[in-house]
Amino acid sequence: MIWLHLIVVLGAIFLGARLGGIAIGYAGGLGVLVLAVLGVTPGDMPLDVVSIIMAVIAAIAAMQVAGGMDWLVDLAARLLRRNPRHLTFLAPVVTYLMTLMAGTGHTAFSTLPVITEVAKENDLRPARPLSIAVVSSQIAITASPISAAVVFFSGLLEDGDTGVDYIGLLSVAIPSTFLGCLATAAIFTAVDRVRGRTRLQDDPEYRRRLAAGTVAAPGAHATRELKPGARRSVVVFLTGLVAVMTYATVISDKVGLVEDPVMGRDAAIIAIMLSVAAVIVLVCRVDTSEVLTAGTFRSGMNACVCVLGVAWLGLTFFGAHEDAIQGAAGGVLEAQPWLLAVALLLASALMYSQASTARALMPTALAMGVAAPAAVAAFPAVSALFILPTYPTLLGAVAMDDTGTTRIGKYVVDHPFLAPGLVAITISVALGFGIGAVVL
C-alpha cells in the first residue's frame, strides 16, 4: 500500500503546484482526506509551526503598516545605488538579512524592484542579482531566529537530547548559509565575466524588447515620505527579536540560567511577537484594520494554509510508513548522512515550505540514526523552493524584470534560479559539516 499512498501524496502536491498559491494547502488537505479513505490514520496537524508563523507575520504586518518596511527598503535602496558595481553581492546580502530578521522570505518582494532598477541604470543584466537574491531569501529561513523551521527543528533537537540546542543550531546555520550565498555570488560573477554576459546591452532578448518599446526606462529616484512611526516600529521589532534570542539562551540546558522556565521557547516566541505587534500598534498609532490588508499579512496567512495542508499530508504519510522507511533507508543515511540533504532538497521542491519539509522529514531522519550535527549541516537543503518556478518571490522577480533576462524557459526547470540555488545549498551544507565539526 505504501506505493499507492505515495502516489496520492505526489498527486496532491502536483495538483497544488499546478493550481498555485493557497491551493497548495487545499490540495494537501485533500490528500489527507484521500489517505483517510484508504485507511490511513491522519498524522498530527502542524499547529505549532502554523502558530509561530501567524504570530511572526502579525508583528511584521504591524511594522509594515507603521511604515517600517518602507524605511528598511529605503535603506536597502541607498546601499545598492551607492555600490552598483557590487550589486550581485549586495542584493543577496540585503534579502538574506531582511529574511533573517523577519523570519519570512516574502520580505524580498519589497527589494526586487530596486534591484531591477539599479541593474538597468548601470547596464547590468538583472537576472543574476535577482536570482541569487531570491535564493538567498529562501535559504536565510534556515538561519532566522524566529522562523518556524528553525524553531521547530531546534525544539526537535532539544527534546531528543541530541546535545544540540537552539543556539547551537544558529551558530552553524547563520555562518554556513551566509557564506554559502556570498560564495555563490562570487562564483556566478566570475562565470558571467568569463562568458561575457554581464552587460545588459549584450543580451539579445533585452535588445528585442528595447526595439519593440516594451522595456520601461529606469524610474526616477522618488523620495518616499515615511510615516512618523516608521523607525520606531523597526526598533520595537528588533527589540522583540533580541528578546526571543535572549530568552531562548537563558532557558537553554547548556547555559542553565533558568532550569524550569514558566514558558517554553515556542510559547515565548508567540507571546513576544504578539506583544511586539501590540506595542507597534500603540506607539506608532497603527490602524489595525489596515493590518488585515497588508501585503505581508496576506502572504503570511497564505503560507499558513500551505504549511497546514502540505505538512499535515507529509506527516500522515511518514507516520503511516515510518517503520518501512526506516528499514529501507535507515542504514544508508546513517552511513552516508549527506544523503539527507538530497532527500530534503527533493522534498522541499515539492512541499513548498521549509517548515513543512523539516516538520515532515527531520523526525524520521533522526529516528533513523542520523547524527544531530549531520542533520544540522543538511538543514539548509529544506530551502530548495526554487527548483519548480512556482514560488511567489521567484515569480515576482520574473514579472518585475521587464528586460527579459529573468525568464522561465520552455522546459520549466531551465530558469536562472536553479543553478545558483543548487550551488548555494551545496556550499551551505558543506560549510555546515565543517563548522558543525568545530562548534557542536
UniProtKB/TrEMBL annotation:
<keyword id="KW-0813">Transport</keyword>
<dbReference type="Pfam" id="PF03605">
    <property type="entry name" value="DcuA_DcuB"/>
</dbReference>
<feature type="transmembrane region" description="Helical">
    <location>
        <begin position="417"/>
        <end position="439"/>
    </location>
</feature>
<comment type="similarity">
    <text>Belongs to the DcuA/DcuB transporter (TC 2.A.13.1) family.</text>
</comment>
<keyword id="KW-1133">Transmembrane helix</keyword>
<keyword id="KW-0812">Transmembrane</keyword>
<keyword id="KW-1003">Cell membrane</keyword>
<dbReference type="GO" id="GO:0015556">
    <property type="term" value="F:C4-dicarboxylate transmembrane transporter activity"/>
</dbReference>
<feature type="transmembrane region" description="Helical">
    <location>
        <begin position="6"/>
        <end position="37"/>
    </location>
</feature>
<feature type="transmembrane region" description="Helical">
    <location>
        <begin position="166"/>
        <end position="191"/>
    </location>
</feature>
<feature type="transmembrane region" description="Helical">
    <location>
        <begin position="300"/>
        <end position="320"/>
    </location>
</feature>
<feature type="transmembrane region" description="Helical">
    <location>
        <begin position="365"/>
        <end position="388"/>
    </location>
</feature>
<keyword id="KW-0472">Membrane</keyword>
<keyword id="KW-0997">Cell inner membrane</keyword>
<feature type="transmembrane region" description="Helical">
    <location>
        <begin position="234"/>
        <end position="252"/>
    </location>
</feature>
<dbReference type="GO" id="GO:0005886">
    <property type="term" value="C:plasma membrane"/>
</dbReference>
<feature type="transmembrane region" description="Helical">
    <location>
        <begin position="335"/>
        <end position="353"/>
    </location>
</feature>
<dbReference type="InterPro" id="IPR004668">
    <property type="entry name" value="Anaer_Dcu_memb_transpt"/>
</dbReference>
<feature type="transmembrane region" description="Helical">
    <location>
        <begin position="267"/>
        <end position="288"/>
    </location>
</feature>
<feature type="transmembrane region" description="Helical">
    <location>
        <begin position="89"/>
        <end position="109"/>
    </location>
</feature>
<protein>
    <recommendedName>
        <fullName>C4-dicarboxylate transporter DcuA</fullName>
    </recommendedName>
</protein>
<feature type="transmembrane region" description="Helical">
    <location>
        <begin position="130"/>
        <end position="154"/>
    </location>
</feature>
<feature type="transmembrane region" description="Helical">
    <location>
        <begin position="49"/>
        <end position="69"/>
    </location>
</feature>
